[in-house]
Amino acid sequence: MDESAAKFFQMAIETPSPSGYEEPIQGLVREYISPFADEVRVDVHGNLIASTGVPEGPRLMYAGHCDQIGMLVTYINDAGFVFAQTIGGWDPQQLIGQPMSIWTPSGRIPAVISRKPIHLLTPEERKKVVDLNDLWLDIGAADGKQASEMVSIGDPITLALRYQPLMGDLVSGPGMDNKTGMWSVMEGLRRARTAPQDLRCHLHSVSTVQEEIGLRGAQTAAGSIQPAVAIAVDVTHASDCPTIDKQKQGHISLGDGPVIFRGPNINPKVSQRLVELCEQYSIPYQLAAIGRATPNDANVLQVHGSGVATGLVAIPNRYMHSAVEVVSLGDVHHVAQLLAEFALALSSEDDFTPGL
User: Is residue 347 within 8 Å of residue 199, measured between CB atoms?
Assistant: First the structure.
């Protein structure tokens, strides 16, 4: 990564973006990508679409969702404690004892989320998996009136956002799912636009919204772009840590490159082109298979309109949907390079119809 791209990546991880509340991160994306795009627009749903290339060329859409799982303030009791429901798929066990942030129009309100101490749990309670209803947020308010002056019903909540370098090129933090994918599609556009050769396609890199609650942003963005070819970029489970069964999940390792998916949700010619480009440009890659509709933006892209030639490239991620997601910066870099090469190779001569 060059210096500006690395700074953009870290700032994205440190910027809140719960599903439905993506405006802060979309502002960051716009600032970064605008110098390299012919047009940057935000649609009514909140997707940010950066476009460049040849308008009469084949329309290529890259989708990387910028939203992250979070919570939503639903109740403040008389004692000043805050209760919330989840946005997206949470394991409540991950929340116990975590520092949190409530994002209000006036700024960030620090909070902690917990439950009563283990010393006070009954033997029956100790045996039970924690229920979200048994957790609350504490902002330090003296009472409900003071809490309500700071926090409102409907304010979004995230884990405390941080960017933590580990050994080698590994980094940790909440929201790697899927700000890594969002960064990759924007960086892929920047690299394609600044390459020595000209684009022959019309590239649209989209920071999609609300993926975590139903793949909603990619569906509406495809409606305005009408792509002929689309590639979704998301994270996938790394299986290179204890307790994960490689026989079920496949052998996916951090640092071994982009993961190229194959299966019924994936156009076979798109996946093959991705593999060929990796081999041509010495980009490390891994293969993965999924025998059903994917639980990410590729799902809705493939069946948009009369059908879209769709690919899925993923970034290996340890500990997904937690406060300590871990990825390799090398993998993220290689995904961006693969996307740039795919865009540069695409022309009106390409036909991704299977069997032809």
Answer: no
- 3-state SS, 32-93, equals HHHHHCCEEEECCCCCEEEEEECCCCCEEEEEEECCECEEEEEEECCCCCEEEEEECCCCHH
Q: How do beta strands 309-317 and 229-237 pair?
A: parallel
pLDDT greater than 90 at residue 115? no
Six-digit token string for 15: 């910027």
pTM, 2 dp: 0.95
Residue among 22, 187, 211, 212 flagged as catalytic: 211
Domains of the chain: 3-68+174-345 (3.40.630.10), 70-159 (2.40.30.40)
pLDDT digits (tens, 9 = 90+) for 130-165: 888 889 999 999 999 999 999 999 999 999 999 999
Q: Could you give phi then psi for residue 294, rounded to 5 degrees?
A: -75, 150
The length of the chain, given as a count of residues? 356
Beta-sheet strands, E only, within 98-189? 98-104, 107-114, 136-138, 156-159, 164-165, 170-172
Residue 356 clears pLDDT 80, i.e. is over it = no
Burial zone of 193 (CB within 10 Å; 0-12 exposed, 13-18 middle, 19+ buried): buried
The verdict on whether 3 is a catalytic residue reads no
Residues 6+ apart with CB under 8 A from 80: 139, 141, 142, 143, 144, 145, 146, 147
Instruction: State whether the Cα torsion 64-70-74-80 is positive or negative.
Output: negative
Tokens standing for residue 282: 């010495």
Give 38-74 pLDDT, tens digit per residue.
Answer: 999 999 999 999 999 999 999 999 999 999 999 999 9
Q: Which pLDDT tens digit goes with each residue over 308-342?
A: 999 999 999 999 999 999 999 999 999 999 999 99
